[in-house]
Design brief:
1260 residues; alpha+beta; Rossmann fold; 7 domains; eight-stranded mixed beta sheet; seven-stranded mixed beta sheet
Amino acid sequence: MSDTSTHKSFDSDFPILGLLPKKETGAWQFLNKYPEYDGKNVTIGILDSGVDPGAAGLQKTPDGRPKIIDIVDATGSGDVDVSTTVEAVDGTITGLSGRKLKIPTFWTNPSNVYHIGIKSSLDLYPKLLRERLSTEYKKKIWDPQHREKLAEAVKKLEDFDREPSVELSQEEREIREDLQHQIDVLNSTEKKYNFPPKIFDCVVFNDGKVWRACMDTSCIGKLEDCSLMASYYEENQYATISALDQMNYSFNIWNDGNVLEVVTNAGSHGTHVACIAAGYFEHEPEKNGIAPGAQIVAIKIGDSRLGSMETGTALIRAIIHLSRKGVKLANYSYGEGYLWPNAGRINEVIEESVRENGLVFVSSAGNDGPALGTVGSPGGTCSSIVSVGAYVTPEMMKAEYSLREYLPLMHYTWSSRGPAADGALGISISAPGGAITSVANWTLKGSELMNGTSMSSPNACGCIALIMSALAAKGRHCSPYELRRALEYCAINESSQNFDKFAAGFGVVKVEKTFDYLHNVLSHRDILMDINWHVSVTMPKSGSNSPGRGIFIHEPNQAFKRTEHFVYVKPELHGEGLEKEKINLSVHARLVCEESYVKSPSHIELMNTGRGFYIQVDPTGLETGCYLTELKAFDCDNVERGPLWRLPITVIVPRKVPSWNYSQENISFQPGEIRRHFFVVPIGASYVEVKISSNHKENSLKMLLHAVQFHSFSTKRLSHFLSLNPLATADDNFILINDNSTIEITIARWWASLGNATLSYSVQFRGVMLSSKSFTLHAGAPALPIDIKSYCPRAEEISPNVTLRFWEQSLKPSSFKIRTLDSIRDCVVPYKRQIYGLELIYKLNIDRTTDVVINFAPLSSLLYESDLESQLWMLHDAATKVHITSGDAFPSGYSKKLDKGDYLLRLQIRHEKQDILEKLKDLTATIQLKLHSNITLDLYSDTSGALVNSRKFPSSIILPEGESSTFFAAPPNDEKISKNSGRLLGSLTLSRDESIKKAVNYPFYYVIPNGKKNNKSTPEKRLSNEEASKILMEAERDCRIAHLRKLEDPLLYYNELCIKYNDYVPLHLSYLQGVEANPNVSSGHITDVCTKALDLIDKNEVLINIGLKNDQRPDAARIKADTETKKLWLIELYIKFSSSLLDSLEKVDNDILRIENQNSIELMKSQLHQSILNLMSLSDSSQDQQTGQVIARYASYKRLYGKSLKILLKIFEERCAGQDSNDLEVKIISLCKKCDWNHLANYYEDWRVYKHPKGPYRPF
């Protein structure tokens, strides 16, 4: 068939509108009907990972206005402390990197005062960009240079070896060895290459009108090649760091020029979100976002220090900034799980901004479905937020996912489902949850497919912007409460079997229907629709005083009987001058519920005060399953306006399983179909095992297995994605929180599957009841008894094991300070409530390289629900201040491998009230370190057996139904545990099956005893007068000598002491230690003192004693100790002697020291050579850093640069944290230059500047 005939046989039109869906919500039709209501006069706050101002579609609006009017980094991760000021001299300043910065002549700075700071590229580049740059830089720049130098080094050695084969002289052997050392260094560096960060000098000044800033992206001080910009909101300027990275950045300048905020993005997520909501493509309008006429305020709330995780600091600052800018619509496509809903400092500030500032806050519901109760926080848990679920349409399946078949509109399998744990519906509306649109330029992708409620939220937000734009043009005021109520009332709930009402909320957002309702049905401001109706529910006699926002019956003690619930309704009117409206508020309300299992009053009179009434829920006649209904209140005088308020009612009736087993055979699953099963967990069950078998002979199946168990006002949930091969079986295990409670087991077919699938599956409850859910063994106890009992109808095999994997130590802060934070960024609008920061300092020592987790237990796992505003910690090298890692409320996510050494830990906690912060000034930090090797505890049949190490508990037993057993965990051996106090952490497991052990385990702690072992007491020996006098004289001598090194000019006192103690080596060592850094003391004098001290020690005797393997002499122990002392003296003296000779010889070579007699020079060289040989006979340069450094220096003096570099690099690699290695790195860089390896010198220089930052610690 010809190409021409082929072209005629298919439709060549691309389903372009499926790339960024608009038709399903009516946005496309609305814009065609009302093109002038395209979002104009609406500004959307995008609270996300940051927005790239250079991405396609984000430059301008249809009428030519800037698309992005402000860009802010609210996290603090972009902040630079530029409080250090300098004045230019001859048009040049020195940056904190140490580089000379040439001030361009076209800069205007009347004061000549410049604020300076530094910023690392590691702070500005996301992980994916760092990985790309590392690969590209190494391939394009590093590798060609390095290979050239390696080839040169190899050729030099080959040329050397081509010489006639004669016996080499000592000098020639050293030269050849050095050539090999150079090759070794180059090969080793290639293997250990790590892309170095760039350090950018930052300069801030006031040009007489505005503050301006420049970042030295040239990294060589050429500021004229770098961008000079004001704060973004003033001039809308941004620049690109480099052509290779394509990372765009902008500035904000705070605190009178003392803080520079460098804004980049922590990921491409935020750019994608912004384009969905409001992107504008002038020549490709079909690619536009939902509201192309809207403008954007981009606020980065994803902290780069935490891999783009949101923080409380960022969220509070973002809300403050939105209030300051007068933004009335915000999108938030972020969220986490929660411990309890609709509580915490962040939720309070969001609700306050909605109430006081009229902010419409739109947020993603979460991607943790399909089980019920999986909405995230704050989207699904905060009352004031418009929460958005995600669905997929046939057009999206065609354009975005390229499916072979197009399925009906359905919610994505992963879209979170309501209700919230306190009964609230959890989801307000739904919108399309996928799009292909622009991403950040640094990805080099242009556009990308992303899906999630992160995409449905900006789609809905754009729809709201269209409505707000139209209402503004009509002069129609609409409060957030009225707008949300209208969105929910006008949403469409599809009738498709795959359209899940728990995922949809009130349904699919409809733009034109909502606008018509607000413009025509409610053509003027309606005070009743402006009211924020607080509806809360409590269950009398339930034992809980916590009010819910709905009724959620799910536990067996509620699901099998009638329950009474007290509903309390209280109106809130917000705004100035509403006193008469409050007085006149009177509503004749009709209460309606369509389900017969709910009994309520038919009417209630509402006024400006709280009213309460009782309703009854009777699920006793309901079949096993889940039910959702609502109690709605209508105004009897105007039913057309829709419900004034709604009370959601969710009922789960679980299935009892007396046999502990439930199975289904040959069950058909359509694409996206979800089957929920609710069970009462049998008493005594500790985990549940789910097996799924495919009955398909040909195709693989994609399934999602989800288990959820509610606990108080939170949930425990686990999900696993399963890919079943033909006729294959998969199984999974889930630990249970409580027995005699309800668990949901959901099995779902993946939404993008094709065709019907037939499965068989079973749910088997397993396990035994333990005496506790966690266990603590104290060192003083002989053993810890652990009781187990089986209730399972089938006998359980029990194989107990206790393994300890971590050591945990506690740190108290060494200092604290409460600071007043930024008066603009950290002052809550509109009441000017200042936020304060408590900063705590902890000193941490790590005695070996290991994985470390830092935890502040009272603050852990609390973000949105925390009563505090936020917490953030940063870890630094104690010596250099370099930032190593950071963490926040979720410690397990920030494990870090730390080298041996000293560290400084800084914690900041923020709140408006100083007295609350004051109470936290002694907060304990918990440091969890991975053990070098796991410790397995011995288990015994009784306590006595644990004491005498007999009668161990069997490795496995069979426990029939109704029987119990006890085993005893004994403490570990003393030699296996740390000498320090604290506790060891691990887990107790009861199965041999690794998959069960991974899923079902219980925390186990061993408390290490405080203090050291008591030494055996020995009777005090009586001294003779002569012995006592000798001891006193020696103590006086040692005291006088110890003070010698502390004197500014110890020579006079040294000469005086020499009269009495000239034969005592420590005298000379103490003097040498006192004068070694004194520039006024000549190297010759140090050489003479060293010679004098060395003559006092019999080196040969020391070497002979060191070489003795089995000394049988009676005083062998004393001789050994004396020999070790003298050995250390000799090592220190040879190091100082060699160093002083090198000082003299280097001065001669540099013409600093003139010596007329050449014989004197040769004598010094000979002495130096012999000193080095003596030192090497006593000390290994690979083990002792001081020895290594002096031998490396000697090698460098002899121009054996390869040998010197090899030694110094080994010392550098083995250094400990907390040791300042700057001088060492300078020597390495110098040697690289001497080898003509400029690429290596630049490599180590980049790392040196990064590892030794000047100025203060990195700001919070």
